[in-house]
Amino acid sequence: MNEVRRRFLVEGRVQGVSFRAATRARASGLGLRGWVRNLPDGRVEVVAGGSQASVGELEVWLHDGPPAARVRAVWLERFQGEPGDDFLIL
Description:
Elements: E1 4-13, H1 19-29, E2 33-38, E3 44-50, H2 52-62, E4 70-78, E5 87-89
Parallel strand pairs: 2-5
Antiparallel strand pairs: 1-3, 1-4, 2-3
């Protein structure tokens, strides 16, 4: 399997709405490795590593997020680091 690694920055009402927990559940269900964390500027950072298809499914999901979230924008870039062995909330 050719693993892809991506970093997403999600902007909108994404903190305090269970975004991290829902992202972890979705990413884990897709077999992805990485993490999700709140940033001081109000955005959420998501790093994901796994198959192209699974990372793509997560990207589509991030544009909506959990029901209470209101996503305004999602930025994507390649991630060169190591995403770890599991999917964590940091």
